[in-house]
Amino acid sequence: YFGTVQVGNPPRSFRVDFDTGSANTWISSTLCSSIACLNHRRFDPSESTTFRNDGRRFLVQYGDGSSVNGQLGHDDMNIGGVTLRNQPFGLAQYESDDMDDSTIDGIMGLAFPALSAVPGVPTVLDTMVSQRLLDAPVFSFHLSRGGEDGQSTGEIIFGGIDSSRFHKPMRFATVTRPLYWQFHVDNVYLGDTSLHLSSDAVVDTGTSLIVVPNAIARQMHAHVPGSIYSRTSGWLIPCNLSGSGPDLVFEMAGGRSIVPSVDYVGPALTLTPEMCFSNIMNSDIEHWILGDTFLKNNYVMFDYGGRRIGFA
Fold it and tell me: Which of 34, 97, 187, 212 has the fewest CB atoms nearer than 10 Å to its CB?
């Protein structure tokens, strides 16, 4: 999931991943010559009349092992028709090889400023609030499952919510640690079976899957019939459970948020097409990560001013 922003004067368009799991905003630049950069549209600071060099450098390392570094600059940035004046952002001078996805040209970090790789640099949300560009200090996400053409779409709203996207009252959870958008999950169910699991979790629009510690992944898959673990492919689920397997249910914020099996059963393996990848991934992490697999089924509001997360 990505969207387009304009940077500089005259404005140039770039596609960015709106990422609630990081706090730094950066764009591939003409200062970069690594192979990954060459697959992206690159910002040329010499072509913008309003660009100003910052002098500081940045380095961001992501949870998947990818990284980017470069120098900071300031310029105007237009998001959805609203212009942020003199917004700080990173000009990538190096991107690791695994960032060669030509779909996006950069990342817009929407986590809390305490997570920033450069202390004291205002995030995009900080600038929106300080320049009084929002009706309220919130933003919200709606991500779709995708249509018949296989294309997934979504919507991000800065300053409010789209109440037409949900029908149940919104429930709120307090942010437990204002680095990430982290909150507490009270219990997990697979179908009607309580797994008696609780943990802090992070809502991360920059992660595709649901990611949990190794032991938790084993416990969850033990209640999905036919699941097996492969050292080469990770957790696998029979493909015929897509749409018929038990719902994965998170009890939190005074209610329940559901992920149906059609979403946690992933794509089929090439050599054994009767088995599918699981979109519940195991990892050596402490807190859980609720990525796009979760977000496709739940409208989420991020209340930056109130330090809370709304679910509907």
Answer: 97
Residue 90: which CATH number? 2.40.70.10
CA distance 32 to 5: 20
Which pairs from 263-266 meet CB under 8 Å and 24+ separation? 263/145, 263/293, 263/296, 263/297, 264/210, 264/237, 264/293, 265/237, 265/239, 265/241, 266/237
Residue ending a domain, among 104, 130, 156, is 130
Q: What is the pLDDT along the chain (312 residues), one digit of tens a residue?
A: 789 999 999 999 999 999 999 999 999 999 998 999 988 999 999 999 999 999 999 999 998 889 999 999 999 999 999 999 999 999 999 999 988 887 899 999 999 999 999 999 999 999 999 999 999 999 999 998 765 555 668 999 999 999 999 988 999 999 999 999 999 999 999 999 999 999 999 999 999 999 999 999 999 999 999 999 999 999 999 999 999 999 999 999 999 999 999 999 999 999 999 999 999 999 999 889 999 999 999 999 999 999 999 999
Task: Count up the domains in the chain and report the number.
Answer: 2
